[in-house]
Specification:
CATH superfamily of chain B: Cytochrome c oxidase-like, subunit I domain
Oligomer: heterodimer
Structural class of chain A: alpha+beta
Shape of chain B: globular
Family (chain B): Belongs to the heme-copper respiratory oxidase family.
Largest interface: A-B, 134 and 142 residues
CATH architecture of chain B: Up-down Bundle
CATH architecture of the domain at 166-343 in chain A: Sandwich
Shape of chain A: elongated
Distance between the termini of chain B: 37 Å
Region (Disordered) (chain B): 1-20, 600-632
Number of domains of chain B: 1
CATH topology of the domain at 166-343 in chain A: Immunoglobulin-like
Radius of gyration of chain B: 25 Å
Radius of gyration of chain A: 31 Å
Distance between the termini of chain A: 69 Å
Order of helices and strands of chain A: HHHHHEEEEEEEEHEEHHHHH
Strand order of the largest sheet of chain A: 3-2-1-5-8
Largest sheet of chain B: 2 strands, antiparallel
CATH superfamily of the domain at 166-343 in chain A: Cupredoxins -  blue copper proteins
Main location (chain B): membrane
Domain Cytochrome oxidase subunit I profile (chain B): 24-576
Strand content of chain B: under 5%
CATH class of chain B: Mainly Alpha
Structural class of chain B: mainly alpha
CATH topology of chain B: Cytochrome C Oxidase, Chain A
Number of helices of chain B: 19
Number of helices of chain A: 11
Transmembrane segments (chain B): 46-68, 96-126, 138-161, 193-218, 230-258, 291-312, 324-344, 356-377, 389-414, 426-453, 465-487, 515-537
Strand content of chain A: 5-15%
């Protein structure tokens, strides 16, 4: 295919050059007649036919290219609001394609039909208020309908997330995403502070907040199917944008300004795999706001699990505090009791006993 | 025809016994061609700068299209030009890819379609079409070009610095553009970008003030606002848009300069980058976006309106028919101008801005589609029952209308915030704005050049080459941007170096289509060489232009073939009628120029126009006052 295209481009290129050189020659030999100020020359009809040929070939190319491209479009939306926006998208697309086709047809057809004819005089037709009123009002009505349905959908999508929504935090950075879950004990994310970021605690989880104790982090995004999910989004360095193409979710990640987006995934990874007939298919979370060199590769894998699988996966995850017990030192004294229950028992504690002890001293 | 010729003769005889004071001093090379205060020379300076920029901006896009269309291609052969930007593997550097995208956008939007289009034709046509000897201030007009030139030089130089030019996208959103540690292009390259844009804005404001003053104050006697050609209306609205919105970009840029160089926190807050927590607190990157798009959206109309204005003129002339709905056209442009200021946040639906604001801007955005639709219908009706002469300018104008529609309709989808969620920052957006503002305005620019070339250089461009240029460009533009919609619908984000990480087997999908787009882009770009050759060759060797090559009604064609300083050798003609008296019933010629009084065309006057005859003496009586104003 690559060579075919290469060949094709060479041919086109040669064709273009030959046309140019030919026309330059033509220009030199026909210079006198070519520059006439007569309105009518032989090219006038040729250009008029060009319009109608362009219309015909363009229509064919438009329909054909749509059929070719269709299999690569995003498949059916994997979220509830996505189903709504998708159907609205295709309805709007049908309306605008109709308008596009109708007006372009008139334009090119008129250009062809009313090509210069020395026996005819153009019609002096400067104004018709009725016509103008018609084509002001009709687009206005169509637009009003589209806007109104669009606004209702937008209002629902951006409404307050249900209180039982699963809360997940996504943090964009150059060039990747950190994911933090609210934990298995409470459905509350702890605070974070960018000044607390270090090599291990790369989100900057604030351990003075007791909600942080059970929070766990992951390098991939797991979502429960059929449950509302609230993404709390922020960025550490520059703008990023959370994009879940299959779920029709997009929201910028802004340093210093938390953003959010809630939605309900309705098709698990397995279901989508079966639907697409691709065993190794995975949902992705991409970045859609230019953020630097690695922008195009800034993606993590997304799994939509059946609710029970999701619960199981969550249960297997260890709180950040459990895997990094040294951070117990950052917990204020009055909460130490509460936090220490997340610290694993002896075997691990022995291994890293020295470190927390030292830090504890320095904090005190 | 007869009326026009006699009138032209009249002007000539007039010229001999009227020795104009301007002709006393001989201009030397510097004052005539370089530091000229003549609006026509300044227009040509803008045009030629614009054409050069267009080739630079276009070639940048070809380089990144190579990467997108042929991700496997070895680009070693570009090393003589790009040097280190081609890495050891023979691939385009990933940061330089972003720099290319950024500079392509900046150059095309500002340097080609704002300066090259508005700068050229506002300068050239306003005095000629309203009947003025020059701009209100020739000196400020000259300064305007030279500030633009300075800006151009800085922007051009930034392409060659070691850390590369600005690379944060043409919108240069902070914090990416504010932090040199975020990407090398945000270092010196961004400083130069901001400096260049500051001078650009200064230039643009000087130009805009001049256009507005000239249109308001220097119209010839009889040229009321409702007798102005639509070109002038469009330039007038464009200048107002620019005057009110460019200062906002300047403030956005200034605050960014402060953040970058003086440690302020207008746009920066809670940033941890490269292992370091920055002290900046309380700033908002969203503030920048609001300020940027407060210019950015009117900017779309700043590049589009002049193209639409010129197209109105060209379509009417070459259809041999009045423009349909002259007042509706003015009304739509006025509506677009006003609405252009209150739709900016539709670029920001998913930035985290309050969703309620999104709702408001969705309503406002879709209102602006109505005047745009009216314009499209009016163009089509102008063609209806016309007698169409396909000059290259006419072809490009028809092309503009087609592209304006094709790109415009998808705006209805993108302006719908619910649908924008999925389409924002995908190739759907790229396709949309390239058609509706990029290609459409470019076609307007080309139409303008082909149409007014005879007036600019006193010579004709080659028609056949013009036809070939048009068909290559028209077909090519559709081949480039039509398929991009599909890629956008498939959810491919823009400004991606490659699609390896996109879901849905992104790397495999659309490889052929991307290659096709790249080839189409290369062909379309190459075809512009036809234009360049035709343009520069015809300046020197084209056939001498006749007095009024397109049999047009507007005033510029009453000047000498090569108008000198002051434009008209004798008195400036008076204006009695609107500019669209083509194929008027009862008239034996198919066009009646604006300077022909109704008393001379009794056979074709409409009933209400008979009343205008009484006002002719009054209009003539203003001659003294008009001359007085130039001698002050």
């Amino acid at each position: 295919m690559f060579y075919l295209i290469g060949l094709l481009s060479v041919i086109f290129f040669a064709l273009a050059i030959s046309v140019i050189s030919k026309s330059i020659k033509l220009n030199k030999s026909l210079a006198a007649s070519d520059y006439t100020d007569e309105a009518l020359d032989g090219s006038n009809n040729a250009n008029a036919y060009g319009m109608i040929i362009f219309w015909a070939l363009g229509t064919i190319a438009g329909v054909w290219s749509f059929m070719v491209a269709k299999p690569d479009f995003l498949p059916i939306a994997a979220s509830e609001h996505g189903l709504r926006t998708d159907s609205m998208f295709w309805i709007s697309m049908a309306v605008v394609t109709l308008a596009f086709f109708f007006t372009n047809t008139l334009l090119l057809f008129f250009a062809f039909k009313y090509r210069y004819n020395k026996d005819r005089k153009a019609t002096f037709y400067p104004v018709n208020h009725k016509l103008e009123l018609i084509w002001t009002v009709i687009p206005a009505i169509v637009m009003a309908i589209l806007v109104f349905t669009g606004w209702r959908t937008w209002r629902d999508i951006t409404s307050q997330a249900p209180s039982d929504a699963v809360v997940i935090e996504i943090t964009g950075h150059q060039f990747g995403w950190y994911v933090r879950y609210a934990g298995n004990d409470d459905n509350q994310l702890g605070n974070y502070n960018y000044k607390l970021i270090d090599e291990t605690n790369n989100i900057g989880i604030d351990f003075t907040d007791k909600n942080s104790f059970d929070d766990f982090t992951a390098t991939e995004l797991h979502l429960p199917k059929g449950k509302p999910v609230l993404l709390k989004i922020h960025a550490q360095d520059v703008l990023h944008s959370v994009y879940l193409p299959f779920h029709r979710v997009k929201m910028d990640a802004v340093p210093g300004m938390p953003t959010k987006f809630w939605f309900t995934p309705n098709m698990s990874t397995d279901e989508m795999r079966a639907k697409l007939g691709k065993k190794d298919f995975n949902y992705k979370l991409n970045c859609t706001e230019i953020c630097g060199r690695g922008h195009f590769g800034m993606a993590i894998t997304v799994f939509v699990d059946e609710p029970e699988d999701y619960a199981k996966w969550c249960a297997e995850q260890k709180p950040f505090l459990a895997t990094n017990p040294t951070y117990l030192a950052k917990v204020p004294d009055n909460l130490k009791m509460k936090a220490s229950k997340y610290i694993p028992a002896e075997p691990v504690a022995v291994d890293s006993a020295a470190a927390p002890a030292e830090e504890a001293v320095s904090v005190n | 025809m007869s009326t026009a010729t006699t009138h032209a003769e009249e002007v000539h005889t007039h010229a001999h016994d009227h020795d104009h004071e301007h002709e006393h001093h001989e201009l030397n090379f510097w004052t005539k061609y370089i530091f000229s205060t003549d609006h026509k020379t300044i227009a040509k300076q803008y045009l030629i700068s614009g054409i050069l920029w267009a080739f630079i901006g276009g070639s940048l896009s070809i380089i990144f299209r190579l990467q997108l269309g042929f991700p496997e291609m070895q680009l070693d052969w570009l090393r003589p030009i790009l040097g280190e930007w081609i890495d050891e593997g023979g691939k385009l550097d990933k940061e330089f890819y972003l720099a290319l995208v950024t500079m392509h956008g900046t150059i095309m939007v500002f340097f080609v379609l704002t300066a090259g289009l508005s700068g050229t034709f506002s300068n050239f046509l306003i005095p000629l079409q309203i009947g003025a000897r020059d701009m209100a201030s020739g000196f400020i007009n000259m300064l305007s070009y030279w500030f633009f030139f300075l800006s151009s030089m800085i922007m051009f130089a930034s392409l060659f610095i070691e850390t590369g030019p600005a690379s944060g996208g043409w919108v240069i959103y902070p914090p990416l553009s504010a932090l040199p540690q975020a990407m090398p292009g945000s270092g010196l390259g961004m400083t130069m970008w901001l400096t260049a844009m500051t001078f650009f804005i200064v230039s643009s404001l000087m130009g805009g003030i001049n256009y507005i003053c000239t249109v308001i104050n220097l119209r010839t006697r009889g040229m009321t606002f409702t007798k102005m050609p639509l070109t002038i209306w469009s330039f007038f609205f464009t200048a107002i848009l620019g005057l009110l919105s460019f200062p906002v970009l300047l403030s956005a840029a200034l605050l960014l300069i402060f953040d970058r160089s003086f440690g302020t926190s207008f746009y920066l807050s809670e940033i941890y980058i490269q292992g370091q927590a920055l002290p900046n607190m309380g700033g908002s990157p969203i503030l920048y976006q609001h300020l940027f798009w407060f210019l950015g959206h009117p900017e779309v109309y700043i590049v589009l309106l002049p193209a639409l204005g010129m197209t109105s003129e060209i379509i009417a002339t070459n259809s041999r028919k009045p423009i349909f709905g002259y007042r509706a056209m003015i009304g739509s442009m006025m509506g677009i101008t006003v609405l252009a200021f209150i739709v900016w946040a539709h670029h920001m639906f998913v930035t985290g801005m309050n969703p309620f604001l999104g709702s408001v801007f969705m309503f406002l955005t879709l209102i602006i589609a109505v005047p745009s639709a009216v314009k499209a219908f009016n163009y089509i009706t102008t063609l209806w029952k016309g007698n169409l002469i396909f000059t290259p300018a006419m072809l490009f104008s028809i092309g503009l209308v087609s592209l304006f529609i094709s790109g415009g309709v998808t705006g209805i989808i993108l302006g719908n915030s619910a649908l924008d969620i999925n389409l924002h920052d995908t190739y759907f957006v790229v396709a949309h704005f390239h058609l509706v503002m990029g290609a459409a305005s470019f076609f307007g620019l080309m139409a303008g050049v082909y149409h007014w070339f005879p007036k600019m250089f006193g010579r004709m461009m080659n028609k056949t080459l013009g036809y070939i240029h048009f068909w290559f460009t028209f077909v090519g533009v559709y081949m480039v941007f039509f398929p991009m919609h599909y890629i956008g619908i498939a959810g491919f984000p823009r400004r991606y170096y490659s699609f390896t990480a996109v879901g849905n087997d992104g790397a495999a999908a659309f490889t052929n289509m991307n290659a096709f787009i790249s080839i189409a882009a290369i062909i379309t770009f190459t075809a512009q060489a036809i234009f360049a050759w035709n343009f520069f060759y015809s300046i020197f060797k084209g056939k001498k232009a006749p007095q009024n090559p397109w049999n047009s009604t507007t005033l510029e064609w009453t000047t000498p073939v090569e108008p000198g300083h002051g434009n008209w050798e004798g008195e400036i003609p008076a204006v009695y009628r609107w500019p669209y008296d083509y194929s008027k019933p009862g008239s034996d010629v198919d066009f009646i120029p604006q300077n022909v009084p109704f008393s001379a065309t009794k056979s074709s006057n409409l009933p209400e126009e008979e009343a205008e005859i009484a006002k002719e003496n009054e209009i003539e009586g203003l001659l003294g006052a008009q001359n007085e104003s130039y001698n002050r």
